[in-house]
């Protein structure tokens, strides 16, 4: 029951205020990430370098649990860090940092969607042993022929998450002005 009290305590804690400069800087960051992630190269230099490291580290880490799960480790490793960051900032009630972490998570979804859409054609350059995770995963699931459609859904979830995070931050900023 103690953890329930902790959750209630976090939920009832006030959010740190969102300043106008923080909203503007966050908006510029979100726009830049969105543009780079959805441009021709689908690469956000700083974020995707880290994402690639987390992706590659995820394979052997999940493989320690079960070798059959190794192929999923990359995507899960890539998503784990932004999820942890988002939750950490949520519990600390830091709206700007929480939104930036959530955008990072959603940028990963765009990145993963690009990888998924490549499952049949396999034209993306790969790191490691050259095996395409999503070709293997979709083949295992019997949905390889749906790679582009599934990728489109994942990409849309990334857009919805990014726009929702930015909208929530703008709402927090406005709310802070109303109750100031």
Strand count, sense and closure of the main sheet?
none
The first-to-last residue Cα distance is 35 Å
Tally of alpha and pi helices = 7
Mean pLDDT: 93
Question: What structural class results from the helix and strand content?
Answer: mainly alpha
Report the order of strands and helices. Answer: HHHHHHH
In terms of per-residue confidence, which ranges show pLDDT below 50 for 5 or more consecutive residues? Answer: none
Number of domains: 1
Give me the Rg, rounded. Answer: 18 Å
Q: What's the count of strands?
A: 0
Strand content: under 5%
Helix content: over 70%
- Outline, from the CA principal axes? globular
In short:
The chain has helices at residues 2-12, 20-37, 45-65, 70-91, 95-117, 133-141, 147-178. It is mainly α and 180 residues long.
């Amino acid at each position: 029951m103690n953890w329930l009290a902790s959750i209630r305590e976090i939920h009832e804690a006030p959010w740190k205020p969102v300043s106008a400069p923080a909203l503007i800087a966050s908006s510029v960051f979100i726009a830049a990430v969105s543009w780079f992630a959805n441009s021709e190269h689908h690469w956000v230099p700083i974020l995707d370098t880290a994402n690639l490291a987390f992706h590659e580290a995820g394979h052997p880490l999940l493989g320690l649990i079960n070798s059959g799960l190794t192929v999923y480790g990359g995507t899960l490793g890539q998503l784990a860090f932004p999820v942890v960051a988002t939750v950490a900032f949520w519990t600390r009630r830091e709206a700007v940092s929480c939104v930036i972490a959530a955008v990072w998570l959603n940028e990963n979804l765009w990145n993963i969607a690009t990888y998924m859409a490549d499952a049949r054609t396999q034209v993306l350059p790969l790191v490691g042993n050259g095996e395409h995770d999503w070709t293997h995963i979709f083949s295992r699931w019997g949905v390889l022929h749906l790679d582009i459609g599934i990728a489109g859904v994942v990409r849309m979830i990334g857009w919805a998450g990014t726009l929702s995070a930015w909208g929530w931050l703008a709402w927090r900023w406005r709310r802070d002005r109303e109750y100031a």
